[in-house]
Amino acid sequence: MEQFHLEIDSRSRNEEFARVVTAAFLSRLDPTLEEVNDVKTAVSEAVTNAEIHGYGGGEGTIDIKGRIEERTFTIEISDQGIGIPDIQRAMEPLFTTDRTGERSGMGFSFMVAFMDGVFVESKPGNGTRVVMRKEIGR
Q1: pLDDT for 99
Q2: Mean pLDDT across the chain, nearest whole number?
Q3: Which residue, 29, 57, 69, 111, shows the most beta carbons closer than 10 Å to its own?
């Protein structure tokens, strides 16, 4: 098993950094361009959710852990933000708590579409943990 651990400030400019670090780590499996883009999109959505919804655009830390076991890539993205009161509802397409009209509510839908498995754990007041898995080179 190989792994990495990254802790970033909850700032929009760090979303791209998280994508690049993840893609570089994933390259060890010699993924297709499509596989890399799928993982990068899912990571972007999870990191953006932590920043926008977990911390409301305010200060906080986003913890990212990636690991490779054989051909399986797993990534965990967690925050210590406000948490999600109803995970099932939050994962519905087009559901958003954003009142500005800038967010589409498709973040979790993209994660589910691009990854082979998505698990979300959250409690109000205790943050959110998103674990995603992708089989590379099937």
Answers
A1: 57
A2: 91
A3: 111
Instruction: Give the strand order in the sheet containing 72-79.
Output: 2-9, 61-69, 72-79, 128-135, 117-122
Angle, CA of 66, 60 and 112, to the nearest 5°: 45
State both tokens at 88. 């099932």
In this prediction, residue 106 carries a pLDDT of 64
**Residue 50: strand, helix, or coil:** helix
Active site residues: 45, 49, 103
Query: Do 52 and 103 touch, CB atoms closer than 8 A?
Result: yes
Please state the pTM of the whole predicted model.
0.90
pLDDT at 88: 85
Assigned token pair, 46: 């999870």
> 87 is written with which tokens?
């995970």
Residues of the chain with pLDDT under 70: 93-106, 138
CA distance 105 to 120: 16
Give me the count of residues in the chain.
Answer: 138
Kindly list the distances between the CA atom of residue 21 and the CA atoms of 5, 8, 65, 104, 113, in Å, as whole numbers in the listed order: 10, 11, 11, 26, 22
